[in-house]
Amino acid sequence: MFLENPVNHKEQFGWIEVICGSMFSGKTEELIRRLRRAQFAKQRVEIFKPAVDTRYDDTFVVSHQGSEIRSTPVPAAANIRILADGCDVVGIDEAQFFDDEIVAVCNDLANAGIRVIVAGLDMDFKGKPFGPMPALMATAEYVTKVHAVCTRTGNLAHYSFRKADNDNLVMLGETNEYEPLSRAAFYKAMKE
């Protein structure tokens, strides 16, 4: 379980938290949990998601389990800088879909005293580091890697295996298109 950083009022800097893992691992659930705790504490919270993510809803961040929280869809990371003015906490879902500027945006917000919570896939469907996520993980104060359960072995799943025949890097989908696999199951599936 993640516990928030104790607040030192002499230090005015914020920090970055990254929640990463495969599909169906609970990244968005954990993001929503942390953001709801901040809202309950009466902190000013804004949540953003890439405009391309319209799987469940155009304006809500929605987990696979159905938890949801209102968000602002943005076409590019630079928009977050402007829209996050006056916030205590900023949540960002599906960070892997943003351009590389998301790293500078998150660092700028943290340097301005804002707690930034980012969720995203750490690897793409080929098992390679995904977009800006490695750089976000490197600059974050806290990184939480969550795991799904492998649909073939029952072990912890680290990989998002694409079942659909599509080589595009970005392809929105659910259980019909993707399944979480362990290292051994992923390696075997990639050879087939």
What does this structure look like?
The longest helix is centred in the N-terminal third of the chain and has 14 residues, at 27-40. Helix 3 (101-111) packs parallel to helix 4 (133-139). It contains 5 helices and 12 strands. It is globular and about 55 Å long. It is 24% helix and 26% strand. Strand 6 (89-92), helix 3 and strand 7 (115-121) form a beta-alpha-beta unit. The model has no long low-confidence stretch (mean pLDDT 87). It has 192 residues and is α/β, with parallel strands linked by helices. The strands form 4 sheets. A 6-stranded parallel β-sheet has the order 5-2-6-7-1-8, with helices on both faces. It has helices at residues 27-40, 78-83, 101-111, 133-139, 183-191; strands at 15-21, 45-50, 60-62, 68-70, 72-74, 89-92, 115-121, 142-146, 148-149, 156-157, 159-162, 178-181.
Write the layout of secondary structure elements.
Blueprint: E1 15-21, H1 27-40, E2 45-50, E3 60-62, E4 68-70, E5 72-74, H2 78-83, E6 89-92, H3 101-111, E7 115-121, H4 133-139, E8 142-146, E9 148-149, E10 156-157, E11 159-162, E12 178-181, H5 183-191
Parallel strand pairs: 1-7, 1-8, 2-5, 2-6, 6-7
Antiparallel strand pairs: 3-4, 9-10, 11-12
